[in-house]
Amino acid sequence: MAYAPITKLNNFTGKENDTQIWLNDVEKAITSLVNKPQDFNAFKAEFLRYFSNNNSINCLVNVFTTIKQGETEAVITYLEHFHRNLHQIQAIDANYFTAPQILNQFIHGLCSSILQHVRLLHPGTLQDAVTRAKDFESAKSETNHAQAINLVMNRSSELDSELEKFSESINKRLKGYLADNYAIYQPSQ
Hints:
69% of the residues lie in helices and 0% in strands. By secondary structure, it is mostly helical. Helix 3 packs antiparallel against helix 4 (75-92). The chain is elongated and about 115 Å long.
């Protein structure tokens, strides 16, 4: 439902004392509405729609459609950026994107390894896609952790083997040295 304010609002300049004047103008405009909004969210959506220009939503959509998860970025961090930008668009036009468009945009923005995994599972909702992306990230992290432990354990075994060889080498050299210099180390009589 469109609302037509009876009073015209002055532009908000941001100068000192203009804030209060502008807010008073907004209050007058709200009270003079023929069809008043039912709640604050309805008012907010209509207010933003009335005072925003198409350029601003186009800029927000452009940013939203180019959001990508970095290869080392956590899914939760990507999700926060994704939601923040989506909410900015929805504040202007709640129906700008359909649920399937939002789902596809989320999947498209995932890093390549997670994107391939999530696509194969064909999630039906954004929540499914988020859950599967987090699960894959967690499994990948656990696998990397297990691989790191195995690497350390293997390296530890290699170091133990090298240390044993080094110890044997020192003992041989020491025995040889002692044998060559046995007379020097004999107690004098």
